[in-house]
Amino acid sequence: MSALRSPSASRPMVEIAGLHKRFGDNHVLKGIDLEVTPGEVMCLIGPSGSGKSTLLRCVNRLEVPDAGTVHVDGELIGYRERNGKLYDLRPKDIARQRRPIGMVFQRFNLFQNKTAIENIMEAPLRVARETKEVARERALQALDRVGLLDHQDHYPVQLSGGQQQRVAIARALAMRPRLMLFDEPTSALDPELVGEVLDVMRELAASGMTMIVVTHEIGFAREVGDQLVFMADGRIVERGDAREVLRNPQNPRTKQFLDAVLA
Fold this sequence. Notes:
Elements: E1 14-23, E2 26-36, E3 41-45, H1 52-59, E4 67-72, E5 75-76, E6 79-82, E7 85-88, H2 91-98, E8 101-104, H3 116-126, H4 132-145, H5 161-173, E9 179-183, H6 191-206, E10 210-214, H7 218-224, E11 227-232, E12 235-241, H8 242-247, H9 252-262
Parallel strand pairs: 3-10, 3-11, 8-9, 9-10
Antiparallel strand pairs: 1-2, 1-4, 4-5, 6-7, 11-12
């Protein structure tokens, strides 16, 4: 059984309410409220330090919020509720909740001493406790999906940055996630390698994968994004239909940012 229930069109895939996060005196998230519907691609944009990555990391509990809640597919992440009070879950229960939530980081974080297929098999073997045969079959399917089936025995040092990031995406897909989180997945790549990663993300979006994407790729947000959220100083400044916000931003701060990026 999966940690999260089957998606229901009647409820959000992600529901964030009143989220606050501080690092010492730095108040990074200042009351974030967001909903992501099943199959939707939400793109988060904004200046560095606006809280985008921290928000993403709160969704799968890599960061613990100071206040507020996150529900994924109807399940409260990180807590159990009893008699109106919230109690922290044990680490193993949080790990169980993370299993259907894939995450792709700026850096690829691949094991350098393992081949592409071995990197992808790691989580199905160690986390999902799959047999080696099942884990290998899942890894091959994931590699095929990202166009790297013929690179299965290559080590990370033998792969370009774009190929390494595609292996990282395949690693997440091997756990059969129902939600994918992308934290600026192309920011560490040379410009000529960005397209191959975005192509994989386009295919995922077309397949109906629910995605939250922190990105500076405005063209991708315009083409693939359903909802666009502009953040600044720990708050949501503007949100709406991606193409409409990009074409006609209503908030002066959004317009200022887009003018600078598009220039």
